[in-house]
Amino acid sequence: MSSSTPEETAPYGAPAGTPAPAGSATIKRIRTHHLREMKQRGERFSMLTSYDQLTAQIFDEAGIEILLVGDSASNNVLGNTTSLPVTVDELIPLTRAVSRSVTRALVVGDLPFGSYQASPEQGYLTAARFMKEGGAHCVKLEGGVEMAPQIERMTRGGIPVMAHIGFTPQSEHTLGGYRVQGRGDTADRVLRDALAVQDAGAFSVVMEMVPGDVAAEVTAKLEIPTIGIGAGNRCDGQVLVWQDAFGLRTGKMPRFVKQYADLRTVLLDAARSYDAEVKDGSFPAPEHTF
Ligand code: KIV
């Protein structure tokens, strides 16, 4: 499919009259085919998690191509320690908040643990809820070869699927904890999973905690775009959990996280200033008073 349909010609966020730059900045609404075209052009794209209206608006304005309403909401929004407990009913309202708040980004609804593994039918019905009730543009699920029937069923039923292979957090207890996948002899497994999800119809694949050279080989062999998280810089795109990347969460971070801001300190200082001014009576001042 061509990337020059009428909805895509105006430069994104540029003042009127600005000549259209090459690349994704010219795309008014990101569709799955744009990501494949970007891969073909050797152009990288970015993805962040988002779970609410205001971050969705900010990241969309920043030009992030994909927003993932991740099951990581479980341990970044809902107070759990892992992604396992979050439910479909908890994630759908967050997905709806994000999909209502973007004008350009592709919104991915993340299927939580237990909501698709039982059968392709179960997976299809869950994914359909994310599309209908959450307004997601596509869904993500974890797994490779064993998830091919689910991916085929969803794709056949009109639901674009992003797969997730390598380290898959929902299988933490099967995989024996947070460990790099695909080292040594197990590199073939990552490639087999990647080819299986591509053949089943996935439009893209996340690779988590995979050695950089393995991820580079998979990226070169696949026609669909790869998105790395702890998989080196030779994937077609990258994803991070926003609270990690922008420093709202602190403490021990996986090696693959780069911290671009220190929002925790900004918020902590602001909350302390507010608290102090309330207690010393300097807020509200006359200008805040009717
Ligand atoms: O839920 C999530 O945040 C994810 C990313 C780690 C890719 O699946």
Secondary structure class reads alpha/beta
Task: Report the mean per-residue pLDDT as an integer.
Answer: 93
C-alpha Rg, in Å?
20 Å
Number of helices: 11
Any low-confidence stretches, pLDDT <50, length ≥5?
A: 1-12
Please trace the helix and strand order, writing H or E for each element.
Answer: HEHEHHEHEHEHHEHEEHH
Overall shape: it is globular
Number of strands: 8
The main sheet orders its strands as 1-2-3-4-5-6-7-8
Would you kindly provide a written description of the structure presented here, covering whatever features stand out?
The chain is α/β, with parallel strands linked by helices. It has helices at 32-41, 53-62, 73-76, 88-101, 120-132, 148-156, 172-175, 187-200, 212-221, 242-245, 263-280, and strands at residues 45-49, 66-69, 106-110, 138-142, 161-166, 204-208, 226-229, 237-240. It has an eight-stranded parallel β-barrel, surrounded by seven helices. Strand 6, helix 9 and strand 7 (226-229) form a beta-alpha-beta unit. Helix 5 packs across helix 6 (148-156) and helix 6 runs parallel beside helix 8 (187-200). The termini are far apart. Mean pLDDT is 93; it is low at 1-12. Residues 49, 68, 70-72, 110, 164, 206, 229, 239, 241 line the site of 3-methyl-2-oxobutanoic acid. 3-methyl-2-oxobutanoic acid binds at residues 49, 68, 70-72, 110, 164, 206, 229, 239, 241.
